[in-house]
UniProtKB/TrEMBL annotation:
The keyword Cell membrane does not apply. The lineage of its organism: Bacteria, Bacillati, Actinomycetota, Actinomycetes, Kitasatosporales. Residues 25-123 form the HTH hxlR-type domain. Pfam families: HxlR. Gene3D superfamilies: Winged helix-like DNA-binding domain superfamily/Winged helix DNA-binding domain (1.10.10.10). Keywords: DNA-binding, Transcription, Transcription regulation. This is Helix-turn-helix transcriptional regulator. The keyword Transcription applies.
Length: 136
């Protein structure tokens, strides 16, 4: 595992070799893969451990087979997901997070849990917003 370019204490003043805010930075594409609707749900679900495709599809309710396949390919390409095909009949394919993927999932799940715990405040804010602006 690589050592981070900056410690958390240094992060505010540290220059990283990549800048997600720059249009051409490859980190922007990876951020999109991880934080998009299906990417974040897939990474979060895989934190529970290795699963087969259909198990993962059932866990991530609402995702189509095509979208899950595309999401897994993108995350595999980025080094976040590992795909292992077993030479069995019928073929068995398992998906699991790489060490990088585990780190990403832990941070993502912290955000998810924070949002889940904040939903009463979010719902109240929505109600207030809708009341003052005529609702949706």
């Amino acid at each position: 595992m690589e050592t981070p370019a900056c410690t958390e204490a240094e992060a505010e003043h540290c220059e990283l070799p990549f800048d997600v805010f720059a249009r051409s930075c490859p980190s922007r594409e990876t951020l999109e893969h991880v934080t998009g609707r299906w990417g974040s749900l897939t990474v979060g679900a895989l934190r529970e451990g290795p699963v087969r495709f259909n198990e993962l599809r059932r866990r991530v309710e609402g995702v189509s087979e095509k979208m899950l396949s595309q999401t897994l390919h993108a995350l595999e390409r980025d080094g976040i997901v590992h795909r292992e095909a077993q030479p069995t009949n019928p073929p068995r394919v398992d998906y699991e997070l790489t060490p990088l993927g585990v780190e990403v999932a832990d941070r993502l799940l912290a955000l998810i849990h924070h949002l889940e715990g904040s939903m009463p405040a979010v719902l109240s804010a929505r109600d207030s917003y809708d009341a003052t602006r005529g609702g949706r």
